[in-house]
Amino acid sequence: MSPFVNPFGESEKILMFNRATLPMKSRWSRLTALGSGMLLSLAMTLNTPAHAIGTSYNGQDPQATGCAKSAVTKAYADGNGFVIEFRWSNSCLTAWARIFVEHGATDSPAAEIIAETAGSHQVVAAYACHNLSYYDSTYSECYTPMVFDGSGYLAEAYGVNGPGTGVSVGWF
Question: 62-170: what fold?
Answer without folding.
Answer: Immunoglobulin-like (2.60.40)
